[in-house]
Structure formats: structure tokens, C-alpha cells
Amino acid sequence: MDIVIISAVIASLFLVIGAAEPLAARLRLPYSVILAVLGILIGSGAIFFLRTELTDALNPVAEAILGLPISSNVFLYIFLPTLLFQATLGMNLRRMLDDWVPIMVLAVVAVVAATLGVGYALSWTSALPLAACLLVGAIVSTTDPSAVVSIFRSISAPRRLSRIIEGESLLNDAAAIALFGLFMGFVMLGVPDPDLGEALAQFPILILGGALTGWLAARIAIWMMALFGAHELALISVSAALPYLAYIGSEQIVGASGVIAVVAAGLTLNLAGPGRLPPQAWTSLGEVWDLLAHWAGALIFILTALLIPRLLEAVQLYDFVLIGVVILAAIAARAVILFGLLPLLTLIKVSPAVEPAYRTAILWGGLRGAVTLALALAVTESLLVPDEVKRLVGILATGFTLFTLLVQGTTLRTVIRRLGLDRLSPIDEVMSRQVVAVALQTVREDVARTTEDYALPRDVVRSEAKLFGERLDKAVKATEDSEEILDRDRITLGLIALAGFERDTIIQRVRERTISARMAEKTLLDADRLIEGARAKGRNGYQQAARRSVAYGRAFRLAGLLHGRLGLSAPLVRLTADRFELLLSQRLTLRDLDAFIEGRIRRIHRRRVADLLLEMLTRRIEMVETALDGLRLQYPGYAEKLERRFIRRTALRLEEREYTAMREDGLIGAEVHTTLMQDLMARRAQEEDRPQLDIAVQRLELVRQFPLFADMDDRTIRQLGRALKTRYANAGSIVLRKDGTVKSVFFIASGAVELETAGQTWRLGRGEMFGQVAILSKNARSAEARAIAPTTLLVLDVARFRSLLKRSAALQEAVRASAEQRGLNPEALLAKN
């Protein structure tokens, strides 16, 4: 075939892709549906012109269209990895973890249910063997990510609904394609009734093998990309190779699922990439993959749609009955999971609740597309599959795909509207009015400055100002007159706006490199939780999210346990350094929020709401400062190193801004600017590495600050530093129980502890100890000790404490004081020991 004609056809397809998006917007139809319809029309037109006797002029073009090298391998090895990889890069994975149960149920359990439901329904109504029926079930279980995600994004569906749909559509392809591979093998081997238990037993192996392959490939790629950090194009090139090598390696070398490998590689890069790669390079990488996925998704829809007329050529009347069976069975199986299993999991507290309206939207939004057609095409290309099976698989998969796109896809907007998911809640409506009012006030100020700068005629300015002022007054009055909104809702609105501004501030600080890329995702996640907490539970939800952002999490407690019990300090070192930097980043951001409250929120919600928000902001700042002070006490000197690093990074940002301004003003030329920026980038790269935290050294410095150990020599201090273990306690956690046996003495490095025994309570703070009285008095029962603030404890075992007590006069004096406080004889207590 003439290469010129093929090139012209491919270029024309890109023109079609370019025209499809504005056409979809004009017709208010999903973009993927428009692409599918255009592809079907092009394919049908090509067949018509080849077979008609009206003209032969277009035969070369028709032959070029129908002769395009379209095979299942093109879709599975070229387009599919691109779509899956980009989808994983664009996901907010940590937010999806909040709904991981419904996502996994839909992505795995629903796929298995649909495969079995469709398979057995077809086996009862058709002459196909069970293996072929199950193969059809696996093929039609794949909800297409490009079709589903684009539609839900285009209709501005609720954020949580979009997250569940995106997570399911991404992961269920992996599950369905793995099942497709199993049943395709049975069909090619001529096994009519496969052992279902044996088939499903291979499923976890395919999943785990693919996941491990993808993770390993991504770790190697991240290591290479970190080496190439100064060369953005090289870094992006490595990312372009990653999904294809992961897919091919898993399929051809490991014998596992290539789709799972691509998903695992994308997830790994999504989680680790922002902390290892320069921010601008990470942004550019995402933009490149967005463009690649846009082209891949569009091409896969058009090219597969071109095949639809040929796949349906041999359709018979009874085939329409079978298509109906597939449709009903697939929807019924999905409905059983959505309206049967998910509510049950919610009832037994395994899964968060998914609202009925959301479940209905998910049911009707399970669109199929290019992936389903590509798998069907793979069956029709196989020489080992019987002809009748090929024919029916092609017809059933194509018919079901057309139903989901042309019926479900075109009516999904209506379903969303009928469910009320496109309407704003009362709070969101007031929020939108507030946004308009605040924006217009800001615009008025900016326009006033602009008109002065350009010295426009007064009559023109006065006329336009009057029109603008009327619109502004109307917007402000609409916001202020929202009497149906209660005060608590006004507070909620203010908190949502405040958290949104905090998120925008974080993004700006990341772009300026004041906040490192390592902390960007964590701080943005905390801001998202503040927004959703305020939206769901108002003031209480916001405060819960604020406390969570500074609390020690499970990972921190596990790291402390590994350090204390096994001596593995690396996880604790990394998490402690992350906590330092996170708290510094939070403090930097929070100090900018009071101006937003005074300047904007006070305009809309009046003084009382603004004052309450300022009070809550002050408490948040105090929480962060308290947490930072605790870390400074634990690790003297390390916070200072981080703060010095922050100052140097800020200075570099300001220096870059000055060079850019000089270049724009013509004070320096391009060559000088490039040289200066290269030097600045080199110095900035040096500041990207955090100072090392040595827990052992830091603990030794901390021990030296204890008044109890002031009379000890350096040798004893070093021995004590090695013997002491660090333990962290969140506010409210119990350190010692009343009925517990005391085996150690605890020294408070930071925080506060409340002791309770015999109806008496007293509090201890930094530099004090507890547990010594129970040990010295031979009393197995102790007072209950509870942390009343985030507390760091240094723990010393009994034998070392007794040895230390004999040598330290200061420690003996502290024991005497604590004994007297409890009404015991201090001399008798010391004499026993």
C-alpha cells in the first residue's frame, strides 16, 4: 500500500480527533461516544465505497482505511499501557485509600461476578461451550478507563464518585484481562468445561507476579530518573520506556499479567516520583503523559470503531437475543455487587457507606469501549479458536459495547441529573455565591488600578464602573441575604474557603520551591482532608483533620517499635525527618492565612465568623508549634539545620526572581541569564538533600540536658545514651497501667504525663521521671501513667537504673523528692537498694 496514502489517512484521523472534542461539547455528548460514532461512520463509508458501483475514485482511500495494520497487539502492547500508566500518574492515590474497599470490590469481585454471570447465562441460552461463554464474560467485564473517566470528569460529578469510578475502571481492566488470558487458553486448547477452581487459583499468581514486576521496574526507573534529574528530557524519556518494558517483561518473561505490571509501575512512580524528581520535571512529565494518553485514547476508539462494521457483518437474528442476554446478565451481576454486597460490607463496618445515588450512577456508568473490542479482536485473530466461537465473540462483544456507549453513554448525563448529583448542595450554592462576590471585589480593585494606569476617559470609566458596581452589589447582597444558612453553616463555608486558600498557598510554595517536592503531596493531602472534613462535619470535621495532620500515625509507632525492639532505626530516622519538614511547611503556610480571613472572609461572613476562624487558626498554629517544640527537645540541633536549609532555599528563590526581572527589563542578556541560572540550579540541587538525622547522637545531646544527669562524667553519659531507648506516646495514650508490672524507669524528654494512684493525681513534665518508686519499693503495682500531650520518653531498664542510682547524687535526690510526694520514707526506700 502506498505510504503516502497511509500517512494521509493517519493525519486525517488526527483531524477527526481535533474536531471531535468541540463537536462533543456542542452536542453535549461524551467525547468517547462521538469518537466511536465517527469511527463507525468512517468504517462503514469505506466498505460502502469499495462495494458500490457509483464511483471508483475513492477506492484507494477506502482500501487504505480498511487496510490499516489494526490488530489486537497494537491495542494491547501500544495503546493500553499508555492509557493505564497515565491514569495511575494522574490519581490522588492517598485519597483513594479512603475508599479502597468499594474500589477493590468493584474492580475484582464485580469482575468475577460479571464473568460468571454472563458466562453461565450464555451457556444456558446458546450452543457455545462453557469455556467460550466464560471468555465472553471476561471480555465484557472490562469498563473502559478512557470512556468512563472522561465522561465523569466532563459532567462535574461529585469528587468521591469520580474517585471510585476512576479507581474501579483502572484496576478492573487488570482483573478482567487476567481472566481473559485464562479462559482464552482453555478455548484454544479445546477444553469445553474448564475446572473453575483451578482457573481462579491461577488468578492470584498472575496478579502478584505482575505487581512485583511493575514495582521492580519502577524502582529501577526512579533510580535512573533521579540520576538524570538535571536533564528533563532524559528523565521523561525514561518514563516513556517504563510502562512498555514493565508490560512486556511481565507478559513474556515472568508469565504474569502485563496490565497489573503497568498499573503497579504507575502507582509506584506516582507515590515515589514527587519526592525524588525536580518539581518542574515532574510537572512536565505529567503534561507529556496527558498528551500521549489523549492521543492514545482517541486513536484506540476510532481504530476499534473502524472494525465494528466488519465484526457485525455476519450477525444473525438470534444473535440479538444473545446480545440482550449479555446486557441483562452483566447489569444484573453488577447490581448484585452494588446493591447487595456493598451495603452488607457497610453494615458489618468493613466498607465506608456508598450512597444509593452513587451506586446507581456507578451501575449505569459501567461503559465498555476500546479495551473490550481489542480483546474480542484478539479472539477473532486466533487460528486456534473455532470459527463459530470467533463469530459470536466478535458480535456479542461489539453489540454490548455499542449498547453501553450509545445507550448508557448518551443517557448518563440524564441519569446523573435525575439522581440530583449534578446539583449543588445548599452550602455549595452559597459557597458559589461567596466565590463570585469575593472575586468581583478583587476584580474591582484591580480594574480601578488598571484604568488609572492607562488614563482612560472618565466617562467611559464611570459608565463601566456603574455597570460593574451593580453586578457586584447584587452578588454581595445575594450572599449576605442568605438567611436560610445558619451560623454553623456560615462557619463551615468559611472553613472550606480557608482550607481551599491553604491548598492554593501550598501549591504556590511548591512552585517557588519553598516547600520541597517531598512534602508537597503530604501537605496537599492534609489540605484536602481539611476541605472534606469541613464539608462533611463542619467545625468538628475541620478540627479532626487538623489534629490528624500533626499526630503521630501508625507508621510512626511501628517505626518506634522496630527501633526499640530490633534496633532498626532507618524507618524512624526517615519518618522523624519527614515530620520535621512537614511541621515546618505547615507553620510556613498557616502564618499566611490570617490575612485571607481578614481580607476576604470577613467581607462576606462578617466579624463574628472571621473572629472564630482566627481563633481556630491560632489553635492550629499552637498545635504545630507544640509539635515542633517537642521535636526540638528530642533532637537538639536538627531543627536548626532544617530551618537554615529553609532560609537558603528561600534566598535562592528570591535570587531567581531578581535574575528573571533583570532579564525581562533588558538589564542582562540571555547568555548572562543562562549562566546565572545554571549556577543557581547547581546550588539549589545541593539544597535539595536534607541534613542527616543521627538518632544516637541526638539522644546523647538530649541526655546531657537532663538535670538528673548533670553530675555524671562524659563516659557515663555516653554509656547511658546507648542504654536509653526512645518511646513516643500520643496525647491520651496509656504508658503504664495500674495492674501492670513495672520493668523500666521513664524519663520525660518532652511533653507531659499524668500519674494516678490511690485516688490521687499529679502531673510530670520535661526532665522528670516516673516508675522508679514502684521498682525501688518492690511493688509490682504501679500508678497509671497517661500522656496528656505528645510525649517523648527515654526508657531505662531496672538493672541499669539501679546501677546508675548508686553513682548519681542528683538521681538520688530526685528519688527522695518523689518518695516524699507520695508520703513514703525516702531513706528507707533508698536503703532497700
TrEMBL record:
The chain crosses the membrane at residues 6-24, 31-50, 70-89, 101-122, 128-149, 170-189, 201-218, 253-271, 291-308, 320-348, 360-380, 392-416. Residues 708-822 form the Cyclic nucleotide-binding domain. GO terms for biological process: regulation of intracellular pH; sodium ion import across plasma membrane. Keywords: Cell membrane, Ion transport, Membrane, Sodium, Sodium transport, Transmembrane, Transmembrane helix, Transport. Pfam families: cNMP_binding, Na_H_Exchanger. GO terms for cellular component: plasma membrane. This is Sodium:proton antiporter.
